Amino acid sequence: MRIDVITLFPEMFDSPLSYSILKRARERNIVEIALSNIRDFTTDSYKKVDDKPYGGGPGMVMMPGPVFDCFEHVREQHPEKGRVILLTPQGRKFDQALAKELSGEKRLILIAGRYEGFDERIRTGLDAEQVSIGDYVISGGELAAMVIIDAVTRLLAGALGDEDSAADDSFSNGLLEYPQYTRPEIFRDMKVPEILLSGDHAKIAEWRKQQSLERTKKHRPDLL
Ligand code: 9D3
Questions:
Q1: Catalytic one among 72, 116, 168, 214?
Q2: Is 75 a catalytic residue?
Q3: pTM greater than the 0.90 cutoff
Q4: How far is the CA of 53 from the centre of ligand 1 (A)?
Q5: 3-state SS, residue 61
Q6: Is the beta carbon of 133 within 6 A of some atom in ligand 1?
Q7: To bridge 141 with a disulfide, which of 15, 37, 96, 112 should be the other Cys (CB 3.0-4.6 Å)?
Q8: Is the pLDDT score of 28 beyond 70?
Q9: CA distance linking residue 173 with residue 154, whole number of Å
Q10: β-pairing, 61-62 with 83-93?
């Protein structure tokens, strides 16, 4: 998969893309991630990317010119047209189902904004889908783009090592995960449940399923 990110802050992505699963997936060419800086596509000497909203109101709006020019440059870097996703608080809520859907694409073009939002002609002119990562306010689209890149890359074939397993992940069975324990058997007077030490694998599987159900009922009844 090829993922392009269009942003004013490409450097924000360097660290998250350089660890663990994302690092390995890039090294193995499971995913290719290309960052493009909108400011490189400004034409004035101030390198201006935002302006006041027509009609008045607070804050600044992303200008269409630099975003369009950056997008057109990016699109011709690769033969696939790609699914164009604008990160905005108004978008479709990102979830594991959308992550799965996106993991089946050959190319994604993610556009991260800053300021109060995008000039509406960016969304309509680029025929972009809007995606939000949840109902809370963050300072720009970059962290949202990183969340999507991480969740999608994990689902690509070969991205997870032997220790990690996509099939085992929370949400893959629609339930929250069961409680897990490792050594020591007793830690500050807290014991590991006896059943996990029993060696009875059928009983253990039954216990875990029960724990998953109880946790989901208690903390996330909306999932049931
Ligand atoms: C005053 C209205 N605000 C909208 C809730 C303005 C505003 C605040 C923050 C507009 C954009 C932003 C920056 N946020 C994003 O670009 C963003 C975001 C988010 O804030 N929450 C969840 N998902 C996303 S995706 C992009």
A1: 116
A2: no
A3: yes
A4: 16
A5: strand
A6: yes
A7: 112
A8: yes
A9: 16
A10: unpaired
